[in-house]
From TrEMBL, chains A, B:
Signal peptide: none annotated. The gene is paaN. The keyword NAD applies. Residues 92-469 form the Aldehyde dehydrogenase domain. NCBIfam families: PaaN_2. This is Phenylacetic acid degradation protein PaaN. SUPFAM superfamilies: ALDH-like.
Length: 559, 559
């Protein structure tokens, strides 16, 4: 191992050990503080100016051959970034990355882990800057951009490294195989086992969580020896480019070819993802985005292992509650956070049309729906707080979808545009909440990306469960929330979760929300329903990224 | 857990623990004796009569709905088996298997491991009978049919159980998540984690190794909670049917639906595999067989995880040797064993046209090729020994291929038909060994299944390595052998093995052969080249067969 890689590993060995322990015990843990107060004041205060200094000019990365320039990012807060990026020539890039692979492979798992942990540590230090880039590409509000774009994304990257390290370190470097032969001398073979990467890895990033959804695939593939092409969404290149730069710097310092992590940006007008995904050299693909494209990859990029995070019909079922107010407040926060643009945001809320029981007496369907609408309205009544929670709508199409969906049901709470104090052109919209009957399945059983949710009147909780089973079975879900005060019904929810392979959040009415997922403890998505074919992270997310190549020979006869 | 499943687990706990230890340390280990002498005399002696008693009548298994009868197996030793099997109605079968799945899932990993280990133990006791069925379907000679069809197949099944148990037991059943909140009380969640199967698993068996290649997929899928459809090759149903019967008996005794392991036999005239493979309920497919069908599955059954063992151009490179004789003897045995019908048999043997160095002086190319031809000839000169090693040719097409390939090069050793003492109609053929030039790439770089091999004259060992790199890169290989007395060249072979992801056997000249692969120590295939997309067994073989579904709720406030 190079001295540099060894030093990197030594520096982060304790973090690695703790991460492996965390994925095993799955309690709360993170090495990357989520409170911005824990970061150096200068780093935090200087971030906006450093972001400003990146605008309206080229952002340079190392690449073997440049084919052209792209870059037309527009902040959802209302201004053009004006950053341009080199687009590498694909053939030359893949040739260079393949040439770089053997040295990265032969460095061994420990060296690769050291390098990856150093990249993560430097990304962590860069969190305030990355938060700026995430804010002005995804539209996330600053605090969320900091947490989800910085430490939480780094957590997910580290989690992938920990899983991969656990898997790789379970393969011994060597073994002596001694087979008894009765009265004769035993047969003795010396065996060696090598971790061998699959080939070029492609990570297709999304516009809403350009780092959080990218780091697991990036680090899982890289640490197992595969060179990684980062293909950012044309609307959110900068956070991925900043990540690539950090990775390239660390790789180079450790004595490796920086092109082992390469950025291939494109434009909406001339997308390159399909061509990259079908390149025979590409053996691993991580994708976050639409169902249509995810399914296209699953069905067409058959030369590669494809890991997809798509979308589904995230569901909440309300059977009964102790008190409606904290439940409504909890759901209201979840619906408002990042204007419903999380892959975990609830879309379908099933409530029996006869109403529900509470410890404070029965509530009619309309009372439940009204409590929810009122909780959202109240939570967003302070405009500054609203803007700090909602952030901005990433894509104009999402804002248009709010308009288009208004006709799908009876409006319980209408979506409003809001004016952002600092950025008057910001695309800020509050949630749209609609009431529909269970029979209006076309309305609620299609994904409506954005701040659009449905309160659905069902015949009973049994009916709610059956509907959820059917809709999630067909369309998938990344989250499932449920409320009941009845242990028998709770068991039914637990069983539903297993049947449709969706993670269950039961009776959340405090400071935890169905759309939040904690690295090292929560498995994000399961990979077992149509919303995603992979989980962040589990063993299945890392083990297909390498193979074991052995050699064997007769052992020297001992003197 | 049911009392029966618990007893099964208790009975085999030590075997399980040892198997997990074995896959970690990868020394020699097996709980199933490969020597037939270790089995009860009655079991061994009575096997032929028990086999005879199965012939010319229906073989019954449990199934929810019968659509018809199939069965037209013909022993490669020259007689019709006359066994018929129920062919289940697919729709009814899948509905019944899906209905049986939740109870199998909810029983938990320990119960499933107990049941699987009991199935394996009973299969082990049945080894003499299974050997009869393997002999008269695959054509393997009796000793090989016993070892490869019995204990070695059971080893591979147990190995899959051990890997799956290791993976499942790494997921905790529950966790308490405690997130500090500064001066406030911490957020505390109780979490539960469930192992959830993917769905119906399909195992498509082959005619040459109907148990060895079937047990890994069968046990990997079953132990992780998936109901398994066994689809045998129409020419080798009986060994798979006997396996299914044992599995059904044990499942039923343990209180589970026996249809969790179901046989779906078909005929060559009316194959059902494609329809089964594309059934949306089928989520896992294990396949052993032709490249064409394996690639069809990989490209078309995109709703499922597909694990394939296909074929490639198994390769030996000769650079230099201490003594040619033991090397030629070693290779001769490998070429003769089961008449080259192993997926691990060498097809391409690269030798520099200028000859090689040995400790006994230089040898010309023709001397090397001649030594090899002579070693095969001598080894097979005793007809009884020849028949006991060669076995019979499974398919008439393979025998025809020997004829067709004779034209592809200069005949170094011609294939002969042999008469079997006990079975005069047996299809027994000795190996065909051809000499070709490296330029005759079309000859040696297509798979020629059967006892057909090529000694290829290359410009140099560097040229041999380059050719092997290209051919294996394009066509894959399950085995790679190499001979050199030069450590620097050995390093080049080790690097070649990593580059093409083929396991290397270096300088084998004793009682170990390139086409043998030992469970718990040797990774059979790597999954990293076109000959196979999976390895038997590694972590990647088991982890994609289940997902983790979690639930979380606020922890009760402690008094």
């Amino acid at each position: 191992m190079s001295q540099q890689a060894q030093q990197m590993l030594d520096r982060h060995r304790e973090t690695l050990d703790q991460a492996v322990e965390a994925i095993t015990t799955r309690g709360y843990w993170s090495p990357y503080p989520e409170s911005i107060k824990k970061y150096p004041e200068e780093a935090v205060k200087g971030a906006p100016a450093r972001f400003e200094a990146l605008l309206r000019q080229p952002f340079s990365l190392k690449t073997p051959a440049v084919a052209g320039q792209v870059g037309a990012e527009v902040s959802p807060y209302g201004f053009e970034l004006g950053v341009t990026y080199d687009q590498p020539e694909q053939g030359a890039l893949i040739t260079a990355m393949q040439a770089a692979m053997p040295a990265w492979r032969d460095a061994g798992a420990e060296a690769r882990v050291g390098v990856c942990l150093e990249i993560l540590a430097r990304l962590n230090a860069l969190s305030p800057d990355i938060a700026q880039a995430v804010t002005h590409t995804s539209g996330q509000a600053p605090m969320m951009a900091f947490q989800a774009g910085g430490p939480h994304a780094q957590d997910r990257g580290l989690e992938a490294v920990a899983y991969a390290w656990q898997a790789m370190s379970r393969v011994p470097a060597a073994a002596k195989w001694v087979k008894p032969q009765g009265k004769h001398d035993p047969l003795v073979l010396d065996k060696r086992y090598h971790i061998v990467p699959r080939g070029i890895a492609l990570v297709v990033a999304c516009s809403t969580f350009p780092t959080w959804n990218t780091y697991p695939g990036l680090f899982a593939s890289l640490v197992t020896g595969n060179p990684v092409i980062l293909k950012p969404h044309p609307g959110a290149i900068l956070p991925v480019a900043m990540t690539a730069r950090v990775a390239q710097e660390v790789l180079e310092e450790a004595g490796f070819d920086p092109c082992l992590v390469s950025l291939v940006p494109d434009s909406a007008e001339a997308p390159v993802t399909k061509a990259l995904a079908l390149n025979p050299a590409v053996k691993l693909i991580d994708f976050t985005g639409s169902n249509a494209f995810g399914e296209w990859l699953e069905c067409n990029a058959t030369q590669a292992r494809v890991f997809t995070e798509k979308a589904g019909i995230n569901t909440v079922i309300i059977d009964s509650v102790e008190q409606i107010k904290p439940v409504a407040q909890n759901l209201a926060f979840g619906l408002s956070l990042y204007s419903g643009q999380m892959c975990t945001t609830t879309q379908a809320i099933y409530v029996p049309k006869e109403g529900i029981q509470t410890a404070e007496g029965p509530l009619s369907f309309d009372e439940v729906a009204g409590a929810l609408a009122k909780a959202v309205e109240k939570f967003l009544s302070d405009n500054d707080r609203a803007c700090a929670v909602l952030g901005a709508i990433q894509a104009p199409a999402t804002a248009q979808r709010i308009e288009a969906c208004r006709e799908l049901g009876e409006v319980l709470l209408d979506s409003e545009t809001r004016e952002h104090a600092q950025f008057p052109k910001a695309r800020v919209h509050t949630p749209l909440l609609l009431k529909v009957d269970a029979s209006q399945r076309d309305a609620f059983s299609e994904e409506r990306f954005g701040p659009i949710s449905f309160v659905i009147a069902t015949d009973s909780t049994a009916h709610s469960i059956e509907l959820a089973r059917e809709v999630i079975g067909e369309k998938g879900a990344i989250t499932l929330g449920a409320y009941t005060t009845d242990d028998a019904v709770a068991d039914q929810f637990e069983r539903l979760a297993m049947d449709v392979a969706a993670p269950l959040s039961l009776n959340l009415d405090g400071g935890i929300f169905v759309n939040q997922s904690a690295a090292f403890s929560d498995f994000h998505a399961t990979g077992g329903n149509p919303a995603a074919n992979a989980s962040l992270c589990d063993q299945a997310f890392v083990t297909p990224r390498f193979v074991v190549v052995q050699s064997r020979r007769h052992a020297p006869v001992e003197a």
